[in-house]
Each structure stands twice: as C-alpha cells, then as structure tokens.
Amino acid sequence: MMTERVLYEDESIVAIDKPYQMAYSGAKSGQAQLDRLLTRLAQRIAPESGKLHVVRTLDKQTTGIVLFAKNLERQAQLRDAYEEGRVEQRYRCLVKGIPDEEKAKISIPLVKLIKGRDMHLEPVKNPRTELNVYNVSTEYHIVNSNSTNCALLGATVSKDISHQIRAHLSYGAGCTLIGDKKYNLKDRNVPPRISPTAMTRLNLKPNQFRHLPMFMHLNQLLIPRGGPGSKYISIRAPVPHAFYYVLNKLRLLKK
Known about the structure:
With 255 residues, the protein is of the alpha+beta class. The protein contains 5 helices and 14 strands.
C-alpha cells in the first residue's frame, strides 16, 4: 500500500517513497503506475481535498522522494521554487569507477537529443550554434569507495533537468551508474561491466552484470516552507533494501 510509503505530510504537502521501476505515467496495462494510485492515496491521507497534485516526478529507474501538493496554490509555489533553484535535492548513486577528485562541481552545459521516444543528454559542442542549451550544475562527493572499482557518491542538484546527474557523472567524472546503459560511454546500450572483485562479492556469473538495476536514490529534499528566505523542510528516504544489500556486499556502506 502506498500509504505505508508516506515519508512526510503536513497541511499542504505529501511526500512518498517511490519504489524502483514504478513510472508516474505511461506504464503498460497491469503494471504499477503512480498516477493510477493517487485517487485512492488522496482519499486516505487528504480526504478534505480529495486530490493530490504532483510537484516533481522521478525517472522510472530512480527511487526515493516524490512530492505532491494538496492544493493548486502550493503546487504552483513549489514548482516555482524548483525552477528558481530553491529546492535542494540530494541523491545517493552507485557508480563504476572512482572519481579523481574527492568532491567537485560539474558544470558541463548539456543539450537534449530526442529520437522517437528516446531522449539522452550530450555535452554542448558549440555553444554559439546549439539551441536549447541547459546550463546546469551537479555537485558530488565520494561517500565510500574501495578495490571493487565502485564508489558510492552523494550528488546534489537544485535547478536540474531529467538525466542530469547520470550525464554529468559520466561526462564530467568518468563514472557511470551501475545498471545505466544509456550513459555508458565505453559501450553504448550496454550497462557498465563491473570488476571481477565486485562480481565475486555479488555472486554474479560473467554476464549477469547486464541485469543489475540502476542504483540512483533521492534520499533527501530541502523544501522552502514559503517564498524566498523562508525556512526549509527536510524530508529523508532510506535507501531501498536491494540498494542496501548491494552496498553491504560491496563493502561500501558508510564508514
């Protein structure tokens, strides 16, 4: 039940912990889809309004905090806060590779390329001729790393676009999220092959790395209570059990 995944609630907002592979919309018939569950969820936790209004969704493969407003005024207020970069979003990402720098800010301008239903980001090649350039930044720090050639990173964004962290870590830090075949620069359309040490610790056979999920989790949001200068609400979501299990097996739990 989604009511058991409610992380935070007050008079105007609700935050839930979205599980892996649950899309907000567009799922096939019979598959879990977040917007199909909203009416029932609203009846249970916001009966006075009877409706929840999505503020910001997550990609299907990303887990963690999804924020809803109980009225249209609060929805508009929070969407403005996101657009103005006043909502701090903190992620945990499991990547192949260890960044050269312990912490850094990646500010590579990105352009969105769309082919059919597929979208991916690439670095801007010529800022003077490219249209729709996204000048966004991602800050990261290494939470833990070891001889598996894997690292647990903390990544923070404020004003952001879809796929930004995945693209920035790949293009700017030389690290690809485990399970992410879209931004694996060494072998497109195949997730990154992890080291033999990591394979052994996870008890995987040679080609089973291809079936690992993507480990990207929105674990904390800092949301303004009102307009600019107001105090912040902090909402946290623990990493999913599968994520924790893999971190434990790789010996990457925080020291």
